[in-house]
Each structure stands twice: as C-alpha cells, then as structure tokens.
What we know:
Low-confidence stretches: 40-48
Radius of gyration: 31 Å
Largest sheet: 2 strands, antiparallel
Number of helices: 6
Helix content: 55-70%
Order of helices and strands: HEEEHEHHHH
Number of strands: 4
Strand content: 5-15%
Structural class: mainly alpha
Amino acid sequence: LVCNNKSVCEAKELGLKENIPITIGDKTYKPKYKKCISENDAMQLQFFDMNFISGVTIVPDSADISKLYKCTNYMSASYNKDYKFEGNYNSIDDYVVDKVVEENEEGSGFKIYPSKKIKNSITYATAFAIFIVIYIGIVFMITSAAILALKTLTDANDNIGKYVILRQIGVSEKMINKSLFYQNILFFGMPIALSIVHSIFGIKLVRDFFTMLGLDCPIKSIFISFGIILIIYGLYFILTNKTCKRIIRERR
C-alpha cells in the first residue's frame, strides 16, 4: 500500500499488521509490508485527484485485473526526454495514449502524469496562489492600516479644543500623551485582537486540511507572516501616535 496521508495510513496499517489478504480473480494476495509506503512521487497526484488521498494498492504485474472495474488509469513516470519513439509520435504522452487508451473500457479515462509535469503543475499552482494571497493580503493590510491612521489623525485634529481645556484645568503634558497613547493603541489593537481570535480557528481548519492531504502545515510561515503584519501595523501606529502628539502640541 502506498499512502502519504497520516490518518489514512494509521487505519490501513491496522489491516496490514493483521495480514489481511485481498482476492483478485482466482488469486489471493497478502501484504508484503506491515506499514504503508509513503516515499513515492506518484502520491503527488492527490493534487489532481482526491481519490489518491485514500492510498494506492500496488499488485504484481501478473495479477489478473481484467474483470475489475476501471474508473480511471494513471501513469506517473520519469522518462528520458531524448528517448526516440517508434513510429510518428511527438511525445511520450502521444505514445502512451495510443498504446494504452485503446485497451481501456469504453467511457473510462486515461491520465498521464510524468513527474516533471507534476512538479511544474504544483509549482505553477503554488506560485499563482502565493501571488494572489500576497497581493490581496498586502493591499488590504496597508489599506486598513492607512484608514485607521487617517481616522486617528482626524479625531486628534477635531479634539484639539478638548486637549486645550485639559491643559487649562491642570492636566500635565505627560498625562495627555499617556492618554493619547492608550487611546491609539486600543484603536489599532482591536482589529489585531479580532484577527488573532479569527486566526486561531482558521489555522486549526488549515491544519486539518493539510493533515487530510498528508502534508505538513507551514506553521513557521504563518508566524512569519503574522510577524510581518505586526511590524507594518506597528510602524503605522508609531507614526500615527507621534503625529497626533505633534498636532495637539502645535495648536495648544
């Protein structure tokens, strides 16, 4: 059995340890290994077909599978790009399809996944997803931080008269700056606090999804991203707080 999904492997290995056989045609086959084999590039096919998450049973070439129901055939392989084909074939895909697809039952599909094609497809999909996520994430993050900063500066400008009254009744400049600091940090901190609460559930969902696919959740990358967000928000907060203090100080 070939499988790289942790939870599925654990379930299947219970059967492997019991040495449970399977029957194909007139022959009975017993598992060669007591554990699932996970180091296999073919399992990358799970990105193309969710059925591969449940694992693949590999049988000897001599097994009679002619009477088994065939939904789809797959081929995952590494081949020499300089290989010369017999006949008028332009690629390994054309060669294999011509040789194999005619043997399939009518209505069944045949898919070819050379290892290079698998890696390229995953790379392109990952790069596209990263570009979209980074672009949208950065745009929304900067926009939201700019809106918060603009709102804070506008309030500071509108409340200049109130700070003048506070100075007249004897409130020190230190206390005013401290009050302004707490007000700004609360205003900037609430969205971050809400995002943290939201992320707790979001990260758990992402981890479960990655576990289902047999992949490791990039926790380190998540914390790095969160650190970048804090740095950007922190810079906006520091600049906004200093500007607010300058506004109320220059017009007192």
